[in-house]
Amino acid sequence: VAEDPSMRLVDGEVFTSDYLDGLAEEINQVLHEAGQLRLVELAARYNVTTQFLLDAVTPRLGSILQGHLENGMLYTPTYVARQAASVRGAFSAITRPTPV
């Protein structure tokens, strides 16, 4: 394991790059169904530490995993765009004069 960079030993378990790629694909699928996911919940689901999951997910963002990571949350680009449009709409509404 020490000589092979495609393998990682974490808490007595060996993880390969192929396994981590598959894990990222599965997370991507769940993410696109939900729109947003907490890393803590994903770590519990896959029985790994949050830091390990963060280390596994971060290099795969934008390639295998289509999402945005911020403050321990994964978001789809669609979710981020929808939230931005909602905020923009709210600010637009409060800047218009309203008849009394």
UniProtKB/TrEMBL annotation:
Residues 2-100 form the E3 UFM1-protein ligase 1-like N-terminal domain. One of its GO terms (biological process) is protein K69-linked ufmylation. GO terms for molecular function: UFM1 ligase activity. InterPro entries: Ufl1, Ufl1_N. It holds the Pfam family E3_UFM1_ligase. GO terms for cellular component: endoplasmic reticulum membrane. This is E3 UFM1-protein ligase 1-like N-terminal domain-containing protein. It comes from Hemiselmis andersenii.
